[in-house]
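Input set for joint prediction.
Command: fold jointly, output tokens.
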Amino acid sequence: MARLVTSFLTPLLMLALIIVASISLGFGSTSVGVFAGLIDWLNGEQTDAALIIGEIRLPRTLLALIVGASLGLSGAALQGLLRNPLAEPGLVGASQGAALGAATVFYYGVFASLGTLATAVAGLLGAGATLLFMLLLAGSGRPALVIMAGLAISTVAGAALAVVLNFAPNPYAMQELVFWLMGSVSNRGLDSLTILFPALIIGSALILSQRRLLAALSLGEQIAESMGQSIKQGSRIIVLGVACLVGSSVSVAGAIGFVGLLVPHMLRPFVGHRPDRLLIPAALLGAILVCVADIAVRGMPFGQELKLGVLTSLIGAPFFVWLVWKERKRWL
Amino acid sequence: MALISIDNLTVEQRLKAVSLELNRGELLGLIGANGAGKSTLLHAIAGLQSATGDITIDDRLIDTIPPHERARIVGIQPQAVSSAWALTVTDIVALGRMPWGDEDQAAINRAIERAGVDEFRDRIIDQLSGGERARVWLARVLAGEPQALLADEPIASLDIHYQLAVMAVLQNYSREGKGVIVAIHDLSLAARFCDRLCLLDKGEMIAIGTPKEVLTEALLSTAYGVPVDIDLEREPPVVLPK
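tokens >
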């Protein structure tokens, strides 16, 4: 069975993704025909089904899938680059950096000339800058150092974010920002896809172009370099790709934590633990997980919606504790 | 014609004007105390360490060879290797094909055979003993079938059975018309397996030649700072501190 899953992992994940996406489109308080609604919407007809599917559920579903894919792929790429199973966009500071960048734009209208792209560009710059600082501070891929450097940089970005919150122009703006930081894919509209989709394509292309470097890095930097790989250039490309993915995701959907940590761990046994073979399945499973989590959030019987980022943290944080426990057993 | 010629190779504070040649079919041993510059020399040849001076491979200056092509010619087995992930032995050996950009099964199988790791080719690296792992790391370099193979203390921390096995693999590889340089601390094994030895002391090459020429009491006590007992007439030869 496990061997079968291994051989057909990518097709199986694609199938699961289509099923989950269909469920997401069909799931909601009003029952409407998914295909009829989609066709009506594509034909520009103003029916209820067209409105519900095309304007509400489709953007939400696509957003969940793209954000999930971005986070899953970023996690796999970071873990491979740093040779560290604990690396994750949130734990190495990238998410906080992106949040800081995007929040600054929200409040103070930096990059106003870029229009709707402003938050995404600021998110990308923030994620890229924190990742670079983290790599500089850690100086190597050693697990303990990377986590410590990530913690330090996250703290700095968190403090700066607190300053931004502190000087919020008005209390509503602050509330809005806090809710946004909790992470959600609801009420975002199809416009945000104009940022997320190109970022996903560019970020993925950058990361996938370095999959041989990720494979070589399994045996350490010296061996990778001795096999003709350029570590300096390659890791810059990977960091840029991750910054693209995380920056755009966080700027649109806020912080959706732990997806990048969980997904690679779930898949590793099925790809023979090879970091290069992990990338595409991680993107697919990330998309599936975030979409499933979003369906779960929508299905909760609470009066107030539980934020997607809060749900992924509730699931992901105990998993992180378990990972630390597992690592501890290796050392004690 | 020499496979590799090194002329005046200098690395600041670590290596002083080292010149030597590695011939095809030769196993050259690199000996010297800790910190003598053995690893630095190997790293410089493999392009992992910037240095001044000239290194030519097959009459081409090494700086003019692009990294991936250089990696096809020179393969190095660094001192401390570990795998970050629980990869299988076959996947690790296949990584050795990276300079060629292929996963040539014939070359991978040859490397697995040469290094004697066939019986555990499907096992996970974490499950192997230190001695078994050492041969897997070696198989990884062998899979690239480099003209020059550099091994940095490949037998450190191995038991005597695996020490002999690994040295035999390196010797056999050199006999196929390739060149091998091995950094080694065990002088008896160096005398037994190496065709020539190069003795480094504080970054300087103080002797190069056959084991008989290099393993003398005067040279060794200078390099290691302890008196040694040398009996090269014995089979196998013995070199031990007094």
